[in-house]
Amino acid sequence: MSCTRLFVGRDRTRCLYNLLGIVLAGLIPATVLQAAPPRVLPDGAQPADVRLGPLRDLDGYFPFTVSPSREHWEARAAEVRQRLLVALGLWPEPARTPLNPVIHSPRDQGDYTIEKVYFESIPGFFVTGSLYRPKGKPEDRCPGVLCPHGHWTNGRFYDCGPEEIKKEIVQGAERFADGGRSPLQSRCVQLARMGCVVFHYDMIGYADSQQITLDVIHGFKTQRPEMNRPRDWGLFSPQAESHLQSAMGLQTWNSIRALDFLLALPDVDTQRIGVTGASGGGTQTFVLSAIDPRVQVACPAVMVSTAMQGGCTCENASLLRVGTGNIEFAAMFAPKPLFLTGANDWTKEMETKGFPELKNHYALFEAADQLKLVPLVHFLHNYNYVSRAAMYSWLNTHFQLGWSEPVVEEDYQRLTAEELTVWDAEHPQPEGGPEFERRLLAWWTADAARQLGALEPHDADSLRQYQDVMGRGIRAILRPLDPDTSGQHWECVAQEEQGTHVAVRGLLTRKLTPREQIGFAPGTDLEHAQEQLPLVLLRPQSPTGRTCLIVSPEGKQTLVDADGQPTAAVQQLLAAGICVCGVDLLYQGEFLPPGEAFTETRRVPNPREAAAYTFGYNPAVFAERVHDIATVAAFLQHGESQSTEIDLLALPGAGHWAVAARALLGTSIARLAADTAGFRFAQVSAIHDPNFLPGGAKYDDLPGMLAVAAPAPLFLAGEGDAPPELVASAYRAANAPEALQAGPADATQSLQAAINWLLGK
What we know:
It is built from 21 helices and 18 strands. The protein is α/β, with parallel strands linked by helices and 761 residues long. Helix 2 crosses helix 14, helix 17 (621-638) packs across helix 18 (655-665) and helix 18 crosses helix 19 (701-708). Residues 4-36 have low confidence and may be disordered.
């Protein structure tokens, strides 16, 4: 049933008859038509919205949809790569400060050497590891291989012990009683013997990397009050999340700088660079390979799958897997050589779920021979001899190492933790601890602020650059609406003549796109996965084609007074021929049981209080509400009513949503009148605050969102006597200072001033 074309008398009459039938049937009491607040659904009912159900989490189902063409994929890959960089805190990229590498204490192991290495990825923050080099190779330059280790006990120092290696040998997982005790060393030794320069580096908190401890980076469980503060905060705090500072981001930056180190070595061939790691090291492998074009061959073991995406805090970051997952991250490496292994873990179904899609994806590039999966499901989670042997063969082929096949791993002299440790009397271990952690994040914050501050617009060219860089970041932290509106459905529930206008109540339903269905628990009814918004439309008898969408903390009930009549502000708009629309955004109005307030966001059932476990898979409520505004705007613009102009009016407490929506929607919003009430994301002090937004503070906070929208007409209240200087600078740079109107400092006067501005008074 449709009643959006209210100016057509026949449609209006049909809708009234339909409504009469509903009332007579007792589905909607007649009193609802006169009640305040105006309801769309029967009393006690909530919208049929999938977002009210279970949240997505890391144990959901993450399928990969193959693009219909290479052109389509290139656009999608650019979007996902941007998401990765933003989520990891690497947009813009931190300054590549001097590494100041130190290589010391070489050991001659016969046909290879081992050296100890440390360098600074960030001033004062050290990456540590072991450098393996071949001996007696005629080539001037050798392939370089990065080896992130994963979550093996003690990392680079891992030793399974004499009893465990006996079991491994019986199972056929390892061959050697001594060397097999450290499969991580085994990998590095064999690759060096094959002619590769190998850098085996520590994940943060493992082995020699103790400036931030294992318990913090990988074992974080509870929010630390001492790290939750407006300045000099620590990891996992709302402030760190608001600036996109995460354990995963730090580790990825260390991987990028490790690649910088490897490529700078004089004996490394920069055109033959590989990365291989397993488990958490596999995560680092496919993430680095997706974002750094210098990697030529990638071998992530026992990690890429449609199932569990990464259980550790170091494998999760807010925003990271919203609408995507590990299979798609791996797909971004195409058409370069990609080698995968599976085991009897979350990767055990890769042969039938994920890998067939990857094969079809590589076929787009006519590169099917550049992809391989070795599904060793008779072994538990591992990077054992059997899987390593397959990896050696892969690198032998693609690096043209010239070894006879099959490549057979040989025994070696395993080194102890004491023999491998980087720090000694001449190379003392650097300071660490909570104060260091705070200083490290303060440097990260200042570096980003310095780079973004250099972009502050002063003319048309600098404004375009500012809006490009900042706009990419802002779009990534929000939830852009799919431009295809075919999934929208409007159902008119009630329509009533009210003298000067016609009041319509209905449900705007939007079916989730395939990518929006990613991450739900297996068995979820995705066929009927949808979002649903209760709307009220008040249309004047002589509409001009303009529609004003009003958002407020109370939802659509703001349109009417206690008697159920349009408020004075709404009446002014109607009198001017402007249609008025009100909506209950997520967790407003009819989304809530009667009398219930929404004060704290939900989180996934994970015992660890890290924001990434929830917001790495689900948009923040703030982003969802902005998304809802975008959904309604698309309906108003492209639905049957087809408004020629859409204005957005935001009351105090909702102004920040509208500002973000305007930054996201661009020219789809003709005019914005918003009272921000001085809101800033940097002031949000809890990760479950409904206004918490990962990344919200990083891109110049709310003023940055306003500046991105310049020179769109803007009435701005709630910011004191004048707009923020950044916003004013953006409008001056656009040569349109007149398009920016400052509202009165007195909040009681701002609404009427906004209405006057919208009416051109």
